[in-house]
């Protein structure tokens, strides 16, 4: 469904509300042999398009909760935010899995159940802002999994969906939380403390908004660099009362309460130190009871969290590079079956006269071109012998000048590609790592140190277009993992009908990319098969570039960079 307000004289902000959705479940079945399930909820939104008088629908995974281990009544901390339009039907699907692995692939985990509701259902059918319904055990469309365990479970699982309007605040709170002299709860050790933060609503109900990691075997824990969005913590109200509960984690039994305190964010700034009180222990010890420990807040700040649009609007340029596959598997460009076919009626302004490489270049390039004020983009070739040279190159500038691979706009890229075809001998193999390393070096060149709120001068997008299997998989994975700490996103577009299984492995949507003992900390790769969108350049660009805003924000948030001129 295209979520956009209709044409009218009203400002868009008058037609849209920002809503927060939080999820909990009750009475989930236990699929694990010795423990309870490890549930996680995936949230989908139905998208609808119309073409040739035909309605087409698909479900897009828009977010997910965290995974909670060993629980049949999980209360998920993560909030899901979305725009709500009264005048539109917004269908949502909540799919619950017992996570048996670190992968999000459906077949590797146990399906528990799902619910499908419109946002209107959630609003009109809620009681005290909570909508409750049964989880269905039939398999929803588009999910490839087994429901054998779910449909034979004797338990009727339920899902609770809390929904409320929130202030669209660009701020977040950052803090270090220091505990001292906490009560000892473990018989053969100290305590394994963690904190749960909840909002106390006007009806006195509690909304869990954050949970710190567990710190093992200590009475003096330190939680560093805690970051909580303002809309989650207090919904823009500095006087919203918050409940802070400190627990001792127990793996095989219920967690033990150490103590609690209540405070608003305004009070946190004014007071910064709070005693933990355990009412049961206080009643038992009477006048001898002092407290169950102390919590102190250090480096407490309210800082602006920049949106994606803040970056290009305030001086951060998008540096775009294309890398084109010139391996022999593409076929002779003079043959009409070649992916590099030189069509006789070629017109760069007519999408339907372009070969598959030209279609990919134009679809992506025309969207990205305006975000670089110079309009210059880099163009490389790999896997061929270029400009009549007798060696295979994997990061060859298609301008012919290795020191200046930039051309003006999409027209420049298409021209450089077209002329390179005249003198290039298609060869092989298909190696990605050299071009990823080259662009990574560019991204390092003018990047100031992270963690200091430094300006981000530019963000790099490398688009690799390829026709088939990758030859240097391990080196490519290593170069992607190394690029995680750089302002770089990598788009891979597969052309033709080859087996792109390995390309999908590089896309971190379903699992963490890893090699030996190194893991990716950001998902910076998006893979898209051109064949799925070849006749719709708008949809191709939308599918290919949809993760870029999130990746820019994740990089800036993680490494503390701000827009260039703010």
Automatic annotation (TrEMBL):
Protein name listed in UniProt: Copine-domain-containing protein
Domain C2: 1-134, 140-278
Family in the record: Belongs to the copine family.
Top-level taxon: Eukaryota
One Pfam family named in its UniProt record: C2
Provenance organism: Neocallimastix californiae
Record PANTHER family: C2 DOMAIN-CONTAINING PROTEIN, COPINE
GO cellular component: cytoplasm; nucleus; plasma membrane
Claim: Phosphoprotein is one of the keywords in the record: no
Xref: InterPro entries: C2_dom, C2_domain_sf, C2B_Copine, Copine, Copine_C, VWF_A, vWFA_dom_sf
Keyword entries, A-Z: Calcium, Cell membrane, Cytoplasm, Membrane, Metal-binding, Nucleus, Repeat
């Amino acid at each position: 469904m295209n979520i956009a307000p209709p044409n009218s004289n009203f400002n868009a902000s008058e037609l849209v509300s920002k809503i927060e959705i939080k999820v909990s479940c009750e009475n989930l079945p236990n699929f694990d042999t010795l423990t309870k399930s490890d549930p996680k909820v995936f949230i989908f939104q139905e998208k609808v398009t119309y073409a040739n008088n035909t309605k087409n629908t698909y479900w897009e995974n828009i977010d997910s909760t965290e995974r909670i281990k060993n629980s049949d009544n999980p209360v998920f901390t993560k909030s899901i935010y979305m725009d709500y339009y009264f005048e539109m039907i917004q269908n949502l699907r909540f799919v619950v899995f017992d996570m048996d692995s670190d992968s999000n692939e459906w077949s590797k985990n146990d399906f528990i159940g799902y619910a499908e509701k419109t946002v209107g259902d959630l609003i009109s059918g809620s009681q005290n802002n909570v909508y409750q319904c049964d989880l269905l055990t039939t398999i929803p469309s588009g999910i490839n999994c087994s429901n054998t365990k779910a449909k034979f479970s004797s338990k009727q699982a339920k899902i609770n969906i809390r929904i409320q309007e929130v202030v669209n605040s660009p701020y977040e709170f950052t803090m270090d939380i220091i505990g001292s002299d906490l009560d000892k709860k473990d018989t053969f050790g100290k305590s394994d403390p963690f904190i749960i933060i909840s909002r106390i609503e006007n009806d006195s109900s509690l909304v869990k908004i954050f949970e710190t990691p567990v710190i093992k075997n200590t009475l003096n824990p330190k939680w560093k660099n805690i970051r909580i969005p303002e809309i989650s913590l207090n919904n823009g109200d500095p006087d919203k009362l918050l409940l802070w509960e400190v627990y001792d984690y127990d793996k095989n039994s219920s967690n033990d309460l150490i103590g609690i305190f209540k405070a608003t964010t305004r009070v946190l700034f004014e007071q910064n130190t709070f005693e933990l009180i355990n009412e049961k222990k206080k009643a038992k010890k009477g006048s001898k009871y002092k407290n169950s420990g102390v919590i102190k807040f250090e480096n407490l700040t309210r800082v602006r969290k920049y949106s994606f649009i803040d970056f290009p609007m305030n001086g951060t340029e998008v540096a775009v590079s294309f890398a084109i596959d010139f391996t022999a598997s593409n076929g002779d460009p003079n043959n009409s079956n070649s992916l590099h076919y030189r069509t006789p009626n070629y017109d760069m302004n007519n999408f339907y006269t372009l070969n598959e490489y030209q279609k990919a270049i134009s679809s992506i390039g025309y969207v990205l071109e305006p975000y670089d004020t110079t309009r210059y983009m880099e163009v490389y070739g790999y896997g061929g012998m270029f400009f009549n040279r007798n060696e295979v190159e994997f990061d060859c500038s298609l301008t012919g000048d290795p020191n200046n691979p930039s051309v003006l706009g999409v027209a420049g890229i298409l021209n450089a590609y077209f002329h390179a075809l005249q003198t290039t001998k298609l060869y092989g193999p298909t190696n990605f790592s050299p071009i990823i390393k080259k662009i990574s070096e560019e991204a390092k060149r003018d990047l100031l140190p992270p963690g200091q709120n430094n300006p981000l001068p530019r963000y790099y997008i490398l688009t690799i277009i390829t026709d088939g299997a990758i030859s240097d998989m391990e080196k490519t994975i290593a170069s992607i993992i190394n690029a995680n700490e750089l302002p770089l996103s990598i788009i891979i577009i597969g052309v033709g009908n080859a087996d792109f299984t390995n390309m999908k492995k590089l896309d971190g949507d379903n699992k963490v990319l890893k090699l030996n003992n190194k893991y990716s900390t950001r998902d910076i790769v998006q893979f898209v098969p051109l064949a799925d969108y070849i006749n719709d350049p708008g949809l191709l660009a939308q599918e290919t570039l949809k993760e870029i805003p999130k990746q820019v924000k994740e990089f800036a948030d993680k490494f503390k960079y701000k827009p260039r001129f703010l």
